[in-house]
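Re: that chain you flagged

S.,

Sorry for the slow reply, it's been a week of failed gels. I finally had a moment to sit down with the sequence you sent. For the record, here it is as I used it:
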Amino acid sequence: MQTNYLEYTPPPSYPEPVGTSRMGIGSFIAAVISLFMGCAFFGLAYAIGNNNVPESNTSSLILLCMLGLVVIACLAGVGLGITSLVQKEANKAFAILGLVFSVAIGIGMCCLIVFSVMLATNY
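Prediction finished late last night. Pasting the structure tokens below so you have them in one place:
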């Protein structure tokens, strides 16, 4: 009985690693951008409210544009997160993070704006 040592048996195959969805990463980046823009929005609004920045039509327009960008970034984050969660065979970690952060930032911004308006009407 002779053993053939030259025969090669391949190792067992492993499944291909699942990559992260680009839409999930985009959702997370949109959430981070909306967070920074929201902080800048409230920082500028606070500065205008304390008369550190002169109130003018330009500053009001900048505030309105910043608020619009925050809303657009939150909606983009929610849309990309949902789209990424629907995809099959993709890592969903960034999609979940982006979706949760976008929704939380959107709700937080709405609550802060309502609270700010309620405070402003009392004075």
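What I noticed first: The chain has three helices and no strands.

Talk soon,
D.
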